[in-house]
Amino acid sequence: MMNLNKFASRTELDQQFAEQVAQLLTQAINEKGQASIAVSGGSTPKGFFQALSKKVLEWSKVTITLADERWVDVNSVESNTRLVKEHLLQNNAAKAQFFELKVSSQLDEKTLAHLNAQADKTLLPFDVVILGMGEDGHTASLFPCSEQIERALSLDNQQKLMAITPKTAPHQRITFTLAALLTSSHIFLHICGDNKQQVLTQALANKDTLAMPVRAFLHHPSVLIQVMWAK
């Protein structure tokens, strides 16, 4: 299920979205003493990250992670970890805990086993998940072109994190699986621009999730996805 929220400008979206997420994190802290959030990379969330970082809440009780990451050096311009550190883990949010995905030079079975165990222990179920969307309909690193996509989209998959190798995008990736992301109490799809609106329209017109993995969220029968869009 999907609910489309349109904003007059990206600045308005960033500010209102940051306020909403801050309230959800505060609610989770009040209910269970801690909160977890998975965010996505790219250029779209930079303004939102900066707005959220200034919100007043008990950031020391919040754990932030990424929905996915490219397996590149954390100092690379391609690194989502670098993006989060530079734009979100600032100001008040500097007190938050950060669950890093890029923890070793090799994305091997030992690394995956360690990250899966730690994610189960410290993150899941998520309180908030914020996804992006590529023009091919991928979200997180759930790429339609990858050989691993069927397993990554399977709700029977017990792995929370998987290695993904897209054929149409650079770098090996690590991503949370569909089943892990769907544990979240609140899931958002954050997109901007006319092109992404067209991709969204295409995704809503068909339910073939292997062709456009974002459809697994948008067409889910019982999970409400809040789409946050501005031109």
Summarize the helices and strands and which ones pair or pack.
Blueprint: E1 2-7, H1 10-32, E2 35-39, H2 46-53, E3 62-66, E4 68-70, H3 80-87, E5 97-99, H4 109-122, E6 128-131, H5 149-153, E7 161-164, E8 173-176, H6 178-181, E9 186-192, H7 194-204, H8 215-218, E10 225-230
Parallel strand pairs: 1-10, 2-3, 2-6, 3-5, 6-9, 9-10
Antiparallel strand pairs: 4-8, 7-8
Key traits:
3-stranded antiparallel sheet, alpha/beta, 231 residues, 7-stranded parallel sheet, Rossmann fold
Description:
With about 230 residues, the chain is an alpha/beta fold. It is about 35% helix and about 20% strand. It has helices at about 10-30, 45-55, 80-85, 110-120, 150-155, 180, 195-205, 215-220, and strands spanning about 1-5, 35-40, 60-65, 70, 95-100, 130, 160-165, 175, 185-190, 225-230. The strands form 2 sheets. It has a 7-stranded parallel β-sheet with strand order 1-10-9-6-2-3-5, sandwiched between helices. Strands 4-8-7 form a 3-stranded antiparallel β-sheet. Helix 2 links the parallel strand 2 and strand 3. The longest helix is centred in the N-terminal third of the chain and has 23 residues, at about 10-30. It is globular.
